Amino acid sequence: MSSYRLTKGGLVDRNAPLSFTFDGRPLRGFAGDTLASALLANGRMLVGRSFKYHRPRGILTAGAAEPNALVTIGRGGRTEPNTRATMQELYEGLEAQSQNRWPSLEFDVGALNGLLSPFLGAGFYYKTFMWPAPLWEKFYEPVIRKAAGLGKASYESDPDAYEKSWAHCDLLVIGAGPTGLAAALTAGRAGARVILVDEGALPGGSLLFDTATIDGKAAADFARDASAELQSMPNVRLMMRTTAFGWYDGNVFGAVERVQKHVRDPARQLVVERLWRIVARHALLASGAEERPLVFGGNDRPGVMMASAMRTYLNRYGVAPGRATAIFTTDDSGYALARDLEAAHVDVVAIVDSRSSAGVDYRGKARLIREAVVCGTKGRKAISAIEVHRGGQTETIAVDALAMAGGFSPIIHLACHRGGKPAWSAEKAAFLAPDGLNGLDLAGAAAATTDLAACLAEGAARSQAIVTAFGLSCPPVVLPKVEGDEGTHDSKPLWSIPGVKGKAFVDFQNDVHLKDIGLAVSEGYSHVELAKRYTTNGMATDQGKLSNVNAIGLIAKARGVSPAEVGTTTFRPFYTPVSFGALTGAHTGHHFQPVRKSPLHDWAKKHGAVFVETGLWYRSSWFPRNGEQTWRESVDREVLNVRQNAGLCDVSMLGKIEISGSDAAEFLNRVYCNAFLKLPVGRARYGLMLREDGMIYDDGTTSRLEENRFFMTTTTAYAAGVMNHLEFCAQALWPELDVRLASITDQWAQMAIAGPKARTILQRIVDEDISDAAFPFLAAREVSLFGGALHGCLFQISFSGELAYELAVPAGYGESVADALMEAGRDHGIMPYGVETLSVLRIEKGHVTHNEINGTVVPADLGFGKMVSASKPDFIGKAMLQREGLAASDRPQLVGVVPLDPKQSFRSGSHVLAKGAAATLESDQGYVTSSAYSPHIGSTIALALVKNGSSRHGEEVVVWNGLHGESTPARLCNPVFFDPQNERLHV
Amino acid sequence: MASLVPCPHCGQRPKEEFTIKGAALARPAADADAVDWFDYVYLRDNPRGAYEEYWHHTSGCRRWIVVTRDTVTHEVAASRDAADRARSEART
Description:
The structure holds two protein chains of two kinds.
Chain A: E1 13-22, E2 25-31, H1 35-41, E3 48-49, E4 56-57, E5 70-73, E6 80-84, E7 94-97, H2 124-128, H3 135-147, E8 162-174, H4 178-189, E9 194-197, E10 213-214, E11 217-218, H5 219-232, E12 236-239, E13 242-248, E14 252-258, E15 273-285, E16 289-291, E17 304-306, H6 307-315, E18 324-329, H7 333-343, E19 347-353, E20 367-370, E21 373-378, E22 385-390, E23 393-398, E24 401-405, E25 408-410, E26 423-425, E27 430-432, E28 440-442, H8 452-469, E29 482-483, E30 505-507, E31 512-513, H9 514-522, H10 528-535, H11 548-559, H12 563-566, H13 580-584, E32 596-597, H14 601-606, E33 610-614, E34 617-622, H15 631-644, E35 646-650, E36 655-660, H16 664-671, E37 683-690, E38 696-706, E39 709-714, H17 719-733, E40 740-743, E41 748-754, H18 758-763, E42 780-785, E43 790-795, E44 804-810, H19 814-824, E45 830-832, H20 835-844, H21 878-881, E46 892-899, E47 911-914, E48 924-934, E49 939-947, E50 956-961, E51 966-973
Parallel strand pairs in A: 1-7, 8-9, 8-15, 9-12, 15-28, 17-24, 18-19, 18-24, 19-20, 32-34, 35-45
Antiparallel strand pairs in A: 1-2, 3-4, 5-6, 5-7, 10-11, 10-29, 13-14, 14-15, 16-25, 21-22, 22-23, 26-27, 30-31, 33-34, 35-41, 36-39, 36-40, 37-38, 38-39, 41-44, 42-43, 43-44, 46-49, 46-51, 47-48, 47-50, 48-49, 50-51
Helix pairs in contact in A: 4-5, 4-8, 6-7, 9-10, 9-11, 15-20
Chain B: E1 4-7, E2 11-14, E3 19-23, H1 34-42, E4 50-56, E5 64-70, E6 76-81, H2 82-91
Antiparallel strand pairs in B: 1-2, 3-4, 4-5, 5-6
Keywords (chain B): Oxidoreductase, Plasmid
Enzyme class (chain B): oxidoreductase
EC number (chain B): 1.5.3.1
């Protein structure tokens, strides 16, 4: 195919050729091309297949609204499907693939869908695939999804880096067209901090294809000089290839900067995309206007293009759209295109103007057909002729390209992102931004201002008003002189076209055509939001940039009302698609979330620990030894060893909070339901913390190290929550109390030493006497270690039921101290144990964790009723705990459960049924909260919350798991399975 | 939801630094009527317009603040330290 590239003109660099491939075929373009302009220059009219009917499609626009020319760029992990060819800058070696076709773009089997089109109208799948219902998931949906498609994402991981960043400015200008440049220059010269963003590669917007002159300079040169001046100002930041995609609360704008999407090999040290949040004191939306397609038959045939796009390809990229072009216009912009085409020696066969007169005096060679419309096109994979309808007559004219100029709609998306509804202006024949915007103004074509001089003036004036309001003095604005601008006056929307032949597309990307809109209205879906969903108009990835206003106009016409009455659908971010990479930023792989490792992690690792993730923590789960085949063997050994000798367990991840101040004891007295005021110095106490509704929130021990200094421990899972809660109590509820809180979880390595030999072992490193008389159960004191070499905190507390201590030492010494304890305990049989063993030991003792403290239980339910202080005037949860229902006898209460047959087992979460009751949830008596195999009992043992459970010890029940179809005869019992008299605490 | 929350100690900060607790209600006295406690723990107004909420500057200064936020526009009209508010209410 011969070249459509003009020999001169445009902003491409003909001395810098680039090679690229499309569907594997090598092609050439120039630096400064987009993929779209390079394809057109190579005569590639057909670039894609449509979504539903697989119709051949070409390039329709030259910008962000492109619905047809979606291609897949790159390969492997860098595959980027659904890239708009009109936005993709060409680079050497670019690889592009067409989409939604099989086996090839030229011969696409899916095009058979076109023959089925009478059955594929709006709502077809609601009507067609209703029966038989089971076929929907298995057959209909997969087939439809395969047939109607976009590009495919890669399964390989993305090798590139992304990041997120904040920026702040006085004035954010969105769009670097004439309006935006004038605004940024004005504010920049006044000294304001300005950020100017634009989605394109070059600043200038419409100036890059406009033939007008500004101050005697070509428009593109004016843009180049203006941006050079902006770049020289230290207070101005010009961000190209950056799309402002959303306007959010607090005048924060979301923007995505494509840092390296225009190069083949991204530099490793740079990100490929950057997600910005821009905090602007004020913003000016200078996003321009979108030209509307005209809805005539075959308006989607390759070779049909928006008039402004054709002008862009011609003037900016030096590409002729064809050899024999026609222009279908409803405003004066079609004449500017005709003039430019003829100046470039491209034949204009006909100008079809829907109006009776134009605002410009056209003197070119083209045949001018007034009061006429294009009603249809001919051609297979590209347009070959147009059918012109005038005064009841239809005439066929051979062409190979057609421009359509349906008038302009201001691009107001961002201005509507915070809930404001656009307003229809009959005068401007356009939807304008909502009234009463705060912190955002619009100017230029985005505010329906059409001619170039007025856009420059408006950009400068708005900007001047904004920076003056900041108190900056603005140098007098000198407006440049514009010559040769033709503007687009007197555009009257032409919603529906008489004599339409064939499918007339409204939404190109979702294949919604004129009849679909009619069907929606006639079937009662004429509300704009219903019509959208019924027809899928505007629901494609282009979000209806080209189609929405036309659809509204057509609905209005069908209903016989004004577009104002139909209104728009809701505008939501993002303006254009944003990659998951940019939204994810650096939070991938190892950086997805922080990893918390205990100061004893390395100690556990060298003892062979198997780790389990609990929240962000890595906890040692068990410590397998040679010859152990299953985790249960390791855990049974660890459990038996703790009760026979001694074990060492890392408990550093328990939350630790230091509470100090002269009212610290009073504070604790109010946050725990049990009494703390009179806790003696040097003693620890188990505390229950309630929520205001009376349910238990968390538990743990708190020790009084000094009169006004306490050491609190929380559960691992609720460490952060308890800290937040205590801060709330101290700051918002009782600011009069003198209390200070510090999270010290990370400052201490804490280890439990449990078992009958714990004291003997510990005494070898602790300097003070820790005999039962000197350091009894619940003693808590600072101790000296290794002859005064180190100090730590020692607590005699026990979760296992054995004689046990917890020793806290400064985190950095944790591993050394654990090593020393292992050495000191070697002759006494000490072994490390993990959280699995910890769990078995505590279930054997009937100690609760958050399995039982699950937000539905009050202290009495767990047997802690007597702990609740009756004398304290107030504590969190006191008032609501008085509620009658919380003392009812059929409350779920903590109870033990064992299988009748020790060889049988059951799982946590299983339900408890009365013996003989039907296996239904109606006969549910409660559920198993924790279960484990106890080597001491020789069977599974479990804790459960069962109605009135504390009075039902000895009762035979059935443990039922409906999900797994399991049913196990069992007996309720005392939840303390081992050493119910607690004699082992004091050996 | 506001994108930025003004902390009386740290200035405008991204909302991701904060945790919201909900309506900034005054805690009833321990011996208050059961109805008052029920209101405090369970019942919430859903006003259109200004609403006072507790926010915690969790990833910042760790102070609890009372933010006055418009439920329609999401504009934040005021914020102050929760302790200051509690003290001033105690005086009235």
